[in-house]
């Protein structure tokens, strides 16, 4: 296997075009998204975008366990805590700023990509992996897909554009998912608008073959989209997706969240007496999760109920850097992934005890408008 962070290939098509194939290549870490992977992927997407012979792009992860299990939070942690030469670059948030700026720019690029970009969301899709999946022209999931945004377990919050796309779910549902880090299956993803097509895992190679045989006409944007959708129509098997967990319980989940605020919603969820395993697992995750994260989930969804995707990414960048500088992120990663004692010492005992001043400190951007690293994001692009 290649030791490249991302592997690239080009699949010839019948009419003389090519399908660009990008594969995240870190299966031992479940394809956790490193800065190098982000930079290599964006550079190749930029090149393919202006190459008229490239009619579509396919993005997947190496191995059979995960598309992408999230961002490389261990590298972020080390940049924030290591002694010596790396120490100053860490706690000041310089690596965090570089990392999150590159990640969000890539995610926005995928949302606004000018050619059909298919994301094969097989296996685990968490955090930063969902950031890649969410923007695809066709988001493909399988019977093994498991989606979650479990940032409450590490003291972060649902970022990668989630402040925007969680707001496009039925009222309260995105908030519940953010507060509990609930795991979603393929049916949930379809029901909630996080995926477009269910394709059985065993049909992957056949689907790529069909994309190679499709007629892309004059290689124009419309012809390419129609060719891709025509090929996908032959393999879609939505009726084979597993039973959903969210949609059958949506009224109950909405009643738990309410409208009073993060502390109230957290108390309601924790007091819920339903003993179904999925609900119980969600409660347990919230109970041991970061109290500050609960407030950040609530505030970010409030702030971006009507904003653009680009504005959400800009706001998320400031908050993510502040979480690294001032928040509980380091302690969460230490407990979960470094020492693995799973007993984080959060800054606050519970959501009800988080002072407003502490919340505002994290929500205050480190930059003025003209100095913002993503100030140009969204110029000339529209996202529905």
Architecture blueprint of SSEs:
Elements: E1 6-12, E2 18-24, H1 35-49, E3 54-61, E4 66-68, H2 73-81, H3 87-91, H4 94-111, E5 117-121, E6 124-126, H5 128-134, E7 138-141, E8 146-148, H6 162-165, H7 173-180, H8 186-191, E9 197-198, H9 204-213, H10 221-233, H11 250-257, H12 262-271, H13 277-288, H14 291-303, H15 309-326, H16 329-338, H17 356-363
Parallel strand pairs: 2-3, 3-5, 4-6, 5-7, 6-8, 7-9
Antiparallel strand pairs: 1-2
Structure description:
It contains 17 helices and 9 strands. The chain is of the alpha/beta class and 384 residues long. A 6-stranded mixed β-sheet has the order 1-2-3-5-7-9. It has a 3-stranded parallel β-sheet with strand order 4-6-8, with helices on one face.
What is the structure about, briefly put?
With 384 residues, this protein is an alpha/beta fold. It has 17 helices and nine strands.
Structural class, please?
A: alpha/beta
What share of the residues lie within helices? 40-55%
Q: Which runs of at least 5 residues are low in confidence (pLDDT < 50)?
A: 83-90
SSE pattern, N- to C-terminal: EEHEEHHHEEHEEHHHEHHHHHHHHH
Strand content: 5-15%
- Rg, alpha carbons: 21 Å
**How is the biggest beta sheet arranged?**
6 strands, mixed
Helix segment tally = 17
Keywords:
384 residues; alpha/beta; 6-stranded mixed β-sheet; 3-stranded parallel β-sheet; 17 helices; 45% helix
């Amino acid at each position: 296997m290649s030791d490249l962070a991302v592997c690239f290939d080009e699949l010839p098509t019948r009419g003389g075009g090519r399908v660009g194939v990008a594969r995240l290549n870190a299966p031992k870490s479940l394809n956790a998204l490193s800065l190098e992977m982000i930079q290599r992927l964006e550079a190749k997407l930029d090149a393919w975008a202006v190459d008229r012979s490239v009619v579509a792009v396919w993005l997947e992860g190496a191995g059979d366990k995960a598309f992408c299990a999230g961002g490389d939070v261990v590298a972020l942690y080390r940049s924030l805590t290591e002694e010596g030469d790396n120490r100053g670059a860490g706690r000041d948030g310089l690596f965090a700023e570089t990392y999150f700026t590159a990640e969000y720019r890539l995610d926005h690029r995928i949302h606004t990509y000018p050619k059909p970009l298919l994301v094969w969301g097989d296996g685990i899709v968490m955090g930063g992996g969902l950031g890649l999946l969410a923007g695809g022209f066709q988001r493909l999931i399988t019977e093994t897909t498991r989606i979650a945004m479990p940032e409450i377990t590490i003291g972060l919050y649902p970022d990668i554009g989630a402040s925007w796309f969680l707001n496009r779910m039925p009222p309260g549902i995105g908030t519940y998912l953010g507060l509990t880090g609930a795991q979603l299956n393929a049916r949930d993803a379809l029901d909630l608008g996080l995926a477009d097509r269910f394709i059985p895992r065993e049909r992957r190679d056949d689907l790529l073959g069909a994309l190679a045989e499709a007629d892309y006409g004059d290689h124009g944007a419309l012809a390419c989209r129609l060719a891709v959708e025509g090929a996908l129509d032959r393999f879609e098997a939505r009726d084979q997706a597993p039973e959903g967990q969210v949609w059958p319980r949506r009224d109950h989940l909405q009643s738990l969240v309410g409208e009073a605020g993060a502390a109230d919603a957290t108390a309601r969820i924790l007091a819920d007496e339903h003993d179904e395993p999925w609900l119980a697992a969600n409660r347990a995750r919230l109970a041991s999760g970061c109290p500050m994260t609960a407030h950040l989930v609530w505030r970010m969804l409030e702030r971006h109920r009507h904003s653009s995707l680009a504005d959400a990414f800009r706001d998320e960048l400031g908050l993510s850097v502040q979480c690294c500088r001032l928040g509980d992120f380091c302690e969460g990663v230490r407990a979960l992934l470094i020492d693995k004692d799973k007993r984080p010492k959060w800054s606050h005992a519970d959501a009800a005890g988080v002072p407003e001043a502490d919340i505002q400190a994290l929500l205050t951007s480190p930059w003025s408008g003209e100095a913002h690293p993503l100030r140009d994001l969204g110029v000339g692009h529209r996202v529905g």
